[in-house]
User: Which sequence fits this backbone?
């Protein structure tokens, strides 16, 4: 290699692995959720038939690339970090949009698209007047993500491999994740996950606990509802204690109440949420918190700075429609004295 | 027909006819427009090859249904008016999105989608820091709109048939428009058009003048640049005088300087633009002005009220991303004392 030539394989901060989903976003009243049996604030898995039914009842919408880990990858890139993404789209118009948006953000994305059905995944996201988002996800091509989509070079090159708990829904993605974790650890890298959703935790509680307790996962992100769901407790304190015991580093987000960083043997760090002008749409809040935290983490920042970067990114994304920041997070970090 | 049964054919306020386009919207700096030879503030027509090139250079984007006359139809429906739309999409994912959004807004839309290529039209819209939008439109399936897509019953049932000057770009849409105008006038309805874009006016000046002078078109919407382009004058006053002489009713929009309604033999009406908090994206400003004006017009409101409804809708849409109002214009009219 010539001096000065750039080899991205030496240089990745975070590899994100997740369901590659295009969001279809519309506002609705709370009554609509009740009438259509949509669990508020949750990720509701739906089949093609229900997708068609709900779309027929949905108001005019806008589309934006989404997917939890994809949003995190985009956020890290927006901070100026070096991110990669594994996720499966189909070779269709929504897949083209997804591919464009994540690459245009500067994320390394090379997963082979699926030829033929099912189509690219989409999530119909209904945003109620309180800003809460309720998701209805048709997994589409995501069900085909498997171990053959793991690019070992990229895993080995990434300081942290981060994946979403939602990957336990499609049938073979968990195999891909176990391979990623093995390769990462063989290369002395770290593995991180988000618990994704309280109902997702409920579906895969034992497997998620095993991922932590077996050391497959080092760093866990959870919001308070997910943490309490994991340990089936109504005590946040008990959930944080248990999470701290079960993994090397636990980050618990608490919405407007900020976040807690828990690492065994160390003093816990609590950081407030940033002040916001108007809560528009909570979609992507957790994903962008993880982006900010992991960007700081892979740049060797203090735990407090990592949490503050997470709060900043989450606070910005909830003041706009859509799950990925419209403006540069790098600039926001500079403006916020966090660069 | 049973008493109380609803027959929409008796009841339409405005039929809008235009290119059915999905907008792909991203922010960019002014330098980007220069480097890529994009005419700022204009609608730049592009072919498939240039569409691919520009998309490869575009940042992360969001998608929203657009198209000038489609936006106007959506705006009229949002005010509570009864609107229909003729426009051609393909039977693909973007076409499904377009179809969904316009119907979900309450617009009657029945144009047969195109099977096979070309795909649904898209316009890559670059929004510069000053809020100005520069459009790059690949017409796709729109080139197939023709006289066979004219539903005579809908034309006859609509108080006003409104079309965009942009329809002179695809090859056969103008035939459809001439048919619509004939049917409308046979049914004692009115025909309206927007001049669309100064460069579009430059391409079709003689034909547009003929549409007015032959009485094919009764009501003309133009912004000041289009009006001055039409008459190749640098004097707005001269352009307004000429437009007033050439059609029964002329409405000239002047951005932040409001609008002028000119009707031969009557005192001109000037209405200011509404105060705005932040100019975000000018996409759809003219389309929504026409929506507000035509909604008032078809409800027999005064010229001043029509213009104020236009200013309201335009002022709201430029304070958000995307060309169709996210919030109810009916509610906005109530809140603004214009209902």
Assistant:
């Amino acid at each position: 290699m010539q001096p000065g030539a750039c080899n991205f394989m030496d240089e990745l901060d975070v590899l994100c692995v997740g369901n590659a989903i295009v969001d279809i976003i519309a506002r609705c009243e709370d009554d609509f959720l009740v009438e259509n049996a949509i669990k508020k604030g949750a990720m509701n898995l739906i089949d093609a038939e229900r997708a068609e039914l709900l779309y027929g009842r949905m108001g005019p919408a806008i589309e934006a690339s989404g997917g939890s880990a994809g949003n995190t990858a985009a956020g890290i890139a927006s901070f100026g970090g070096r991110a990669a993404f594994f996720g499966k789209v189909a070779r269709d118009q929504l897949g083209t949009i997804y591919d464009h948006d994540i690459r245009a953000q500067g994320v390394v994305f090379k997963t082979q698209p699926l030829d033929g059905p099912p189509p690219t995944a989409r999530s119909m996201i209904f945003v109620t007047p309180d800003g809460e988002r309720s998701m209805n996800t048709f997994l589409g091509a995501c069900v085909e993500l498997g171990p053959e989509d793991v690019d070992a070079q990229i895993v080995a090159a990434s300081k942290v491999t981060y994946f979403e708990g939602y990957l336990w829904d499609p049938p073979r993605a968990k195999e891909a994740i176990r391979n990623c974790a093995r390769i990462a650890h063989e290369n002395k890298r770290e593995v991180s996950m988000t618990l994704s959703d309280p109902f997702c935790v409920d579906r895969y509680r034992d497997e998620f606990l095993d991922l932590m307790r077996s050391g497959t996962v080092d760093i866990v992100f959870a919001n308070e509802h997910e943490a309490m769901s994991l340990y089936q407790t109504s005590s946040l304190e008990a959930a944080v204690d248990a999470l701290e015991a079960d993994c090397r580093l636990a980050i618990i987000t608490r919405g407007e109440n900020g976040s807690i960083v828990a690492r065994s043997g160390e003093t816990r760090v609590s950081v407030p949420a940033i002040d916001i002008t108007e809560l528009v749409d909570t979609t992507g809040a957790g994903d962008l918190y993880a982006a900010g935290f992991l960007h700081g983490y892979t740049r060797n920042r203090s735990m407090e700075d990592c949490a503050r970067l997470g709060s900043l990114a989450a606070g910005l994304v909830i003041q706009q429609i859509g799950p990925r920041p419209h403006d540069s997070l790098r600039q926001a970090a500079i403006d916020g004295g966090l660069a």
